[in-house]
Specification:
With 342 residues, this protein is of the alpha/beta class. It is built from 12 helices and 19 strands.
Length: 342
């Protein structure tokens, strides 16, 4: 790749809530999980807000309106206003409004969040291909979205409608486990039509543009738990990121990450916003962070020392990413990670 790759997590002498003016926070796996606030999230966000950091909540889920998301956050103890929430529905509605005339009819395959966002941009949601829509907007519609909605999308696209999708996440977390996400539904329409949608959500630039326009952030920090949406989105937007270990990404995925998936900072949970970040520095043939030293030894990663397990993971990231260069690290990580007991 042409741009320089990140070879280790960065340190920060300042608390991240002071070094950045706005936190662009993913929701599920970062702020809450299964409808409940993640440990330390409520108090950490309150402290960051009191210290002057703006908090914005950025979600690829196009089903709920910003009002509904803000209400849910407030119930969990995280006070939020609708203007603090940015959704992929809003991002795709802006993308569409940039290309379609005011008042254009749009077939909606999704939920209320998508309809509200389209109306906000002066577009007119319709329910049938017989309404002669000029475009199709597809977003997550919940587990009860009727199969017939995909047929309506296929009919409209075959008739010349331009196809847009809020996001292409293949899965979505639910209280009962992992369920098919909007990306799975997009694949249904893709198979039926052979068409390709224009996509707005994370990790693509339209979503980053939407967050910056709505928040006015000058020094944003993306905070997420997924490498392939949150961290890649920050990479594509040219901004820094914090990966928290409260969601889907595990140590093995982090160590194997290609450059576009490598976060600027790594921390256990949202308490990482309130502190500086330890330096990861070269030491001999390896890297040191806190009381740990990591290096590539033969065909495996090796770890020595003790202390905070997250410091050990940061050191391992430096050893793995440096060894991998602009690719993915294929070294055996199992023994080194087992020593951390994360």
């Amino acid at each position: 790749m042409s741009q320089q790759y990140r070879s280790r997590p960065l340190g920060s002498s300042e608390a991240l809530s002071e070094a950045y003016d706005t936190a662009l926070l993913d929701l599920d796996g970062v702020v809450y999980a299964g409808g409940h606030a993640i440990g330390h999230a409520v108090e950490s966000l309150a402290s960051a807000r009191e210290g002057g950091m703006r908090l914005a909540y950025v979600t690829n889920n196009a089903l709920r309106t910003p009002d509904a998301v803000a209400g849910h956050l407030t119930e969990l103890g995280v006070p939020a206003e609708p203007g603090d929430v940015i959704t992929s529905a809003q991002a795709v509605a802006r993308l569409m409004a940039d290309q379609l005339p005011p008042g254009a009819r749009v077939l909606v395959v999704g939920g209320e969040g998508l309809r509200v966002a389209l109306r906000e941009r002066g577009l007119v949601p319709v329910e049938s291909a017989d309404d002669e829509p000029v475009a199709v907007a597809q977003g997550y519609g919940g587990p009860d979205l009727p199969w017939g909605r995909f047929a309506e999308a296929a009919y409209a696209i075959a008739g010349g409608a331009v196809w847009f999708a809020s996001n292409t996440d293949l899965t979505i977390p639910s209280a009962r486990g992992i369920a098919p996400g909007n990306g799975a539904a997009v694949e249904v329409v893709r198979i039926a039509t052979g068409a390709e949608p224009q996509v707005a959500g994370k990790p693509l630039p339209p979503m980053h543009r939407e967050t910056v326009l709505r928040t006015g952030a000058e020094r944003p920090l993306v905070v997420g738990d997924r490498l392939d949406t949150d961290i890649e989105g920050a990479f594509n937007g040219g901004v820094d990121s914090l990966l928290v270990l409260t969601g889907v990404t595990d140590a093995a995925q982090l160590l194997a990450a290609e450059p576009k998936y490598r976060p600027t900072y790594v921390d256990r949970d949202l308490r990482g916003l309130l502190t500086g970040q330890p330096e990861v520095s070269p030491e001999g043939d390896g890297f040191r962070c806190g009381g740990w030293t990591a290096l590539a030894r033969g065909d495996a990663l090796a770890l020595d020392g003790g202390g905070d397990p997250v410091d050990g993971l940061r050191a391992l990231c430096a050893a793995a990413w440096t060894h991998a260069g602009d690719g993915a690290c294929g070294l055996d990580w199992a023994k080194a990670v087992a020593e951390l007991d994360l």
